[in-house]
Amino acid sequence: MGKLTLSLEQEIIDRAKRVARTRKTSLSKMISQFLSSLEPTASQDSFLARLHQELEREGYKPSSLDDDQLRERHMAEKYR
Q1: pTM above threshold 0.85
Q2: Long-range contacts of 45-54 (CB under 8 A, 24+ apart)
Q3: Quick one: 20 exposed, middle or buried, by C-beta within 10 A (0-12, 13-18, 19+)?
Q4: DSSP letter at 64?
Q5: Cα 5 to Cα 50: distance, rounded to the nearest angstrom
Q6: Is 58 in contact with 23 (CB distance < 8 Å)?
Q7: What does the radius of gyration of the chain's CA atoms come to, in whole angstroms?
């Protein structure tokens, strides 16, 4: 198995970790499944459309909390 390093905004990472936790899976497994489903010839527009559809199908809804509230919640969970 290989290793991949990604650079993402912290908010995206935190959100993805929350989604993975609610699915009772790891973020690595979730990303692996998603990347496995990609077609080599898919355009960026279709990639984004499929990502959006997949997130909606899985029940993802954007948080109603602002960045400060999300950060505060994350820190409380992290240092529990």
Answers
A1: no
A2: none
A3: middle
A4: S
A5: 23
A6: yes
A7: 14
Banded pLDDT at 33 (limits 50, 70, 90)? confident
The residue with tokens 């973020």 is 27
SS3 content of the chain, % helix, strand, coil (to 5): 60, 0, 40
Q: What is the DSSP letter of 25?
A: S
Q: Which element (helix H / strand E) includes 21? A: helix 10-22
The set of residues, in sequence order, having a beta carbon less than 8 Å from that of 34 and lying 6+ positions away, is 51, 54
Number of H helices, E strands in the chain: 4, 0
